[in-house]
Amino acid sequence: MHISLTELERESFRKSIVHRIDGRIKIFMTLVIVIYAVSLPRMDTWNFQKLLLLEAYLIALLLLARLEFSYIAIRFAIALPFGLGIAVLQPFLKQPFIPEYTVLFTLPFGLSATHEGALFGAIIFAKFLVSITSVILLSSTTSLSELVASARRLGMPKEMALLFTMMVRYLFVFSNMLGRIRRAQKTRCFDLLNKKVPRIWTLQQIGYTISSMFIRSYEQGERTYQSMLCRGYNADGHVYVGRKNLRISDVSFLALTAGVIIAAQMGLNLGFYT
Amino acid sequence: MHIPDGSIVWYQAAVYWLIAIIFIARSIKWARSDLNEDMIPLFGVLAAGMFVLQTINIAANLLIPLPVLGGVSWHVVGAALAAIIFASPWAAVLLLTLVLAVQSLFGDGGITVMGANILNMGIIGGFFGYYSFIALSRLSVRRSIALFAGAWISMILPAIALVFELWLSGTFPLKEGVLYMSIFQGAAGIGEGIITVIVFNAIIRARPDIIAEEGYKKVSTAKVVVAGIVAFAGLAIAAPFLASSNPDGLEHTTSLLVKDNIKNTITLLFSDYAIPGMGKMGEIAAIVIGFAAILIIWFGAAKILRTADKRR
After folding, report:
1. Beta carbons within 8 Å of B93's beta carbon, 6+ residues apart
2. Cβ-count burial of B11 within 10 angstroms (0-12 exposed, 13-18 middle, 19+ buried)?
């Protein structure tokens, strides 16, 4: 189960209100939401309400973006185990910053789960869930080239911008190249788990695939670089990125997001959460 | 191996980002001026290739034929490989930064913790993988063994660093974490090592001009020694935490250490560490002596390998 670059690009080229929002706004929004979620206190039960509000907002946006459901499900299914793995460990650990524990239940081998640890784990998972939702929203509603162009408009250093521009341009070329290599291997009945050939031979074939990918991408880099030199590229050169003005809809979207974050933070004082 | 968002406290994540940014800036400078010409476009294209070759999943039971490992797979990271091919650890830092940035869009590794991921895989993996390769080459160890060792170290040290980072945030057990991550990454490192040897030999046959072999000779011995000292010092400082029979005191200290002011912490560090006799210092000293012994054995092994090589 995996998501290919083509699927990512297919989703990010759909037409919807969320897709139309300026990439700069979306990058900024994602960063703010992720940093806000991560910087919430480590042990505070109010975190859940705050994060729930943000998660609801992000899911509403995902629905508005009219992405394919199976695509979203797979994206979550791939990403979740990482955070879940760390979260389920927490009840069994003794976090140094928690003064006292109440034991929830005891398992054999001297393992005991604590109430505080479980709470901490749940908070970690909630933070992770909000972060991953906003990353999925960003990457499925903005094309990679748009992301790079927006990052440049946001003032990314020009060297980094050039690196990412080149990288994003060739990602698809190389992923197709790998697809061709794999197809060619398949037609020759190459199978990773074939028990009739020595394992070291299989490893060698994988090694050749990787070296072929490496050399081909290096050679593509050389060709591209030389043709750039022929067209007058030098270290002072800039990659042109057109001006793009923010529209009223972009600004209002930013204001809405800011409003949601402020509401999440201030909700306690305003009496939303009971 | 990719740390997800939320599992590292934000101020620690910020520190890792800061370290990563310093190294990234230097690596860009390397791509721009330390090579003969400005190679930035080439590295951008190569990073795309690196990203794609990291999507090749290799089944774990290819290496260790156990039915338990049915669905487990790993992928090549290539930090040591990139550093060795371009004869500079900065290549690894640059390429891994780009790859990790795009991977984070796929949900592989978080955004706030990207600094920590770059630090582990790009910086620690690239630098120590490369310098252990150079050190072994200096000792005239056969190249394939040096390549294997470099790649293996570039997998195992990041795993240990990762456990320490998570432990400092209170989200991972230290001793068990180091044990299991070392077993897991040590096994993956064997695969990385074998693949690195195969790939290196294939590249040197097809495009020997890519590999900057004369670059190895230019590396000053002092640099290799400094890298070795940093690695051993890091392990020597880390080891007492692992060896401590009562880690609670130390965990308490680290929780204070990361909390606020440093002045307070230093006095606390010493009051907590004031064990009669030599205490922790004694432990550290013992570990340094232990590492010295390992170094001697290493040199001895290198010598044997060298003579074996000559006889061939």
Report:
1. B23, B24, B26, B27, B118, B122, B123, B126
2. exposed
- Its ipTM equals 0.90
Q: What is the DSSP pairing of strand A103-107 with strand B57-59?
A: unpaired
Contact yes or no for A203/B74 (Cβ under 8 A): no
Of A96, A127, A213, the CB nearest to B254: A96
Residues in Cβ contact with B110 at an 8 Å cutoff, skipping those fewer than 6 apart = A34, A38, A128, A131, B2, B3, B4, B5, B6, B7, B104, B117
Residue A217's φ and ψ, nearest 5 degrees, are -70, -35
- Which residue matches tokens 């060698």? A204
Domains of chain B (ranges, CATH numbers): 10-215 (1.10.1760.20)
Residue with tokens 């974050």: A261
- Whether the predicted pLDDT of A116 surpasses 70: yes
- Å between A262 CA and nearest CA of chain B: 19
Q: Which amino acid is at A200?
A: I
Could you tell me how many CB contacts below 8 A there are between chain A and chain B?
247
pLDDT at B105: 87
Contact B52 A175 (CB under 8 A): yes
Residue with tokens 């800036």: B25
Of B216, B185, B187, whose CA–CA distance to B200 is shortest? Answer: B216
Cα separation, A126 vs B229, whole angstroms: 41
A137 vs A68: CA distance, rounded Å: 12
Instruction: Give the helix/strand (H/E) hosting A40.
Output: none
**Contact flag B41-A224 (C-beta cutoff 8 Å):** yes
Q: Give B-chain residues touching A147 at CB under 8 angstroms.
A: 105
Q: What is the pLDDT of residue B272?
A: 39
* pTM score: 0.84
Nearest to A64 by CA among A247, A257, A248, A246: A257
DSSP H or E run through A104:
strand A103-107
Comparing CB atoms, the residue among A90, A167, A224 nearest residue B47 is A167
CA distance B282 to chain A (A): 25
Contact yes or no for B6 and A8 at CB 8 A:
no
Testing the interface with B: which of A185, A191, A214, A238 to mutate, by most B Cβ within 10 A? A214
Query: Which of B2, B10, B27, B42 should be substituted to probe chain A, the one whose Cβ sees the most A Cβ atoms within 10 Å?
Result: B42
3-class DSSP state of B75 = strand
Q: Other CB atoms closer than 10 Å to residue A115's CB: what's the count? A: 13
- Are B107 and A128 inside 8 Å of each other by CB? no
Tokens of B135: 């050190």
Q: In which element (H, E) is residue B57 found?
A: strand B57-59
* Closest chain A C-alpha to B293 CA, distance in angstroms: 34
Question: Are B154 and B128 in contact, with CB atoms under 8 Å apart?
Answer: yes
pLDDT in tens, B135-144: 888 887 888 9
